[in-house]
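Support reply, case 0932

Customer input (verbatim):
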Amino acid sequence: MKTIELEEARRLVAEGGLLPDAERYELQQQRLRELVAYAREHSPYFAKLYADVPEDFKLTDLPPTEKPTLLANYDDWVTDRRLHLQDVLDYVNRDPTKDQSRLLGDYTALRTSGSTGNPLPMVRDDYHNKIHGQLVAQRLLAGACTDAMDISKHRRASVIHLSNGASSYGAFLRMKAAHPEHADNLLGISVLESVQTIVDKLNDFQPETMAGYPSMMVQLAVEQLQGRLHISLKHLATSAEMLSEENFDLLREAFQCPVANNYCMTEGGEIAMTRNCPHLHINDDWVIVEPVDKDLKPLGMSDEWSTGILVTDLSNFVQPIIRYHVGDVIRVRPSTSDCCPLPIMQIQGRTFDSYTICGCTFNVVGLFSKAEVWPDLVRFQFVQTDEETIEVRGVCKSDPQTVLPPLCKRLKEFLAQQDCPDARFTWSTEPAIPNKRGGKIPIFVKNF
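Our regenerated output:
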């Protein structure tokens, strides 16, 4: 396990964010060489994968990696021989309200959302946690009122997916456990609840800072502007999804406070973030982001939208993420800000939207969370065909007639539990409807 003192992590992050492009690139490559050397020595998987990679390698000499292969070779992938897949899964699936211990006494761990039905557990060491913690503190929250973040004085609401192993929920629970005397100033609200229920809880709690997914925060901004939500915020933080410049401005208009947006993932950590502006600046001194085409060839800085990205986290030495393929659609541009030299990422993918059915408004993540774990369902899309009906389009490993009708029944029950009993669900094996921008398949389509 690699460790670092907090003061050293603070210094490295502060210095890296100010370096000119050439010096920052050299520092990035130095860290890449250190990570690859460590992975070769301590990970049997990487030792085999890099057997023919020269010592004076370039980034593109390193073969890309994919979640299914890494998951299948998990015990050989990790660099600590004490770590085993089932033990890590048991750890992330524990009840964190009763057990706040560290994995093997040394590590934190969480898991991906598992949109393909196979959640990936990620172990993080002290080095990763302190570096990425400083990226948030120094870059994402730069310019924020530090007093507003003090939960001993101010109430904080998190509108998130309340699921064991989810990174945002884990952070919420760790905060609550670390400050039991101020637990009443922290409120977790499930994003699966109806918008009206969320509004009612926020109006009752009156938070002064709030965090959540962009799609839900934008919906709440509309509620605030239309007078149904009435809260006064000192700071708003969003993460995990796309937040357009237009919606960034909408959030500032609605809540009249600083807005911070963080593009992060369980595998790669804090990848890009706003710096007092709507643009996402890539933390490329610590994370390498390569936009790639359908053949996984890097596009570099370009006007062309990618069909995916390769991510390398230069700070995780226990479970190395090196040229890890993710299906996000992005493009990278040079910085246009005098105050921040870090390159800018524009992103299309990773969006969950809200929808309205039978007069009730919900976030798509509620439907998604049910379908993602449904047996034999390989791919799915929700197509709303009228004001009361959603069609589930599915690709199934077995007979669709045995897979999709029970799912439709479960989804109808789910909305009925959310006070929307009249919603109808039908199913189809028709092809999914692609997004007109970039061709990516959206989770939800309004088709009427």
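We compared this against your earlier run and they match. Two observations from our side: The two ends are 54 Å apart (CA to CA). The mean pLDDT is 88. Please reopen the case if you see a mismatch on your end.
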